[in-house]
Amino acid sequence: MTHALPRQTFTADVRALDALRDAELTPFWLDQAGAPAPSAALTGADDCDLAIVGAGFTGLWAALLAKERDPGADVVVVDAGAVAGQASGRNGGICMASLTHGVAQGAELFPNEEARLTELGMKNLDEIQQTIITHGIECGWERTGELDIATAPWHVEGLAEERDHYARVGLGHEWLDRRALQADIHSPTYEAGLWHHDAAILDPARLAWGLARACVEQGVRFYERTPVTDLRRAAAGVELRSPWGLLRARRAILATNAFKPLLRRLRLSIVPVYDYVLMTEPLTPRQLDAVGWSRRQALADAGSMFHYYRLTEDQRILWGGWDAFYFYGSRIAAELEERPDVHAKLAAHFLATFPQLDGLRFTHRWAGVIDTCARFCQFWGTALGGRVSYVLGYTGLGVAASRFGARVALDLVGGTPTDVTRLQMVRSRPLPFPPEPLRFPLIEITRRSTEHAELHGGRRNAWLRTLDRFGLGFDS
Fold this sequence. Notes:
The protein folds into 3 domains: 10-31 and 146-197 and 271-369, D-Amino Acid Oxidase, Chain A, domain 2; 44-103 and 205-268 and 375-427, 3-Layer(bba) Sandwich (FAD/NAD(P)-binding domain), CATH 3.50.50; 441-469. It has helices at residues 10-19, 57-69, 103-109, 114-134, 153-169, 178-184, 204-217, 285-291, 340-353, 401-414, 424-427, 439-454, 462-469; strands at residues 24-25, 44-53, 75-78, 94-96, 146-150, 173-176, 192-196, 199-201, 221-223, 230-234, 237-241, 245-254, 271-280, 298-301, 307-311, 317-325, 362-372, 379-383, 388-392. The protein is an alpha/beta fold. The model is unreliable at 1-10 (pLDDT under 50). The longest helix has 21 residues, at 114-134. The chain has 13 helices and 19 strands.
């Protein structure tokens, strides 16, 4: 039986290192012109109707939707860094309609709501597209769909099950056998593919920057470089404290992604996971012809350890995924983005997938931190007597789901039940991760077991089978 990807040889390692020789350790999307002028930090005291903590996709969508609902509301967004500086400016730019980390995952977690969640996901994707058009956001939006690819014979059965899920919920899709897939995109590792039409590709930083501009045009105020260190109830709402100031608000939404939650109750619900990414130089016309890929679909492997990849507007290939790393104590630090061994493994896998691109160089390499939860998709809640709502746990599929997450968080903090706040998906919570010192070894055992299974025909050991029985796992 073949493996999902050939094991690296010494020759492949040398070629991978050569391809990485000039790659800068910086996110490609953030290494371009067009970022909005930085906002001032909060100093002194300020008041508002709605405070939003976090200037990534969730926080930006929450601010824009809040102003659409009530143009007169005073909305303030605060962030410890800059707009889109973390996950929202570092991801692959693949915008999937699914709200549940895939249709199969949704069917397993919320079988009674599968049709409704599919409908909400597609409506949400359409509304993202309409917002981009309405506000003139130039972010390279292309409604290409995504092609999930079996790279080993044992993947094909799982991919066929996914196809059945798409057929049952009525989502457009196309099955490609090995011959049809090879005619479309040329790789010796491909066995079969499922092209589903519920996805788009985009430039995530430019989307976030465009949303921030739209927010400002609607009167939203921003404080950047303003870490919120304390959140507490106040007589007329809540107080958010930073090292240099105080923000008083009637209500607040927490959109802090993988960073340490302001509510202690959430600290076992998510773990920060690092995902690593590469970007090539632009392909020449000859190199593009050698690959095919004329329909420009987003691509993802069908295995448990997977790569995601896509073409950019200027014909580069973004290549990420496979390993996802948790560091002891839920550590988040800039130095953890520097993992030459991980980037070299990614480069070797790229060259195994597209050997005809030998000699292509990578210009950028980076990492981003993801808020992983045990059920693989976002969850919500309220605190401080309903004056605060939160949404976390996207687990790496939040480009589109963040808008829905923001919409639900707004409904929750508004205090009036809606059709979406009544969903089981919204009312339920994932199981917690164990605290340290158990957390790190258990996650590491899971990660290593998953990689071993992926490289040995999908054979899952007793540990993984136990997690499967309880619907648990670890992923990015």
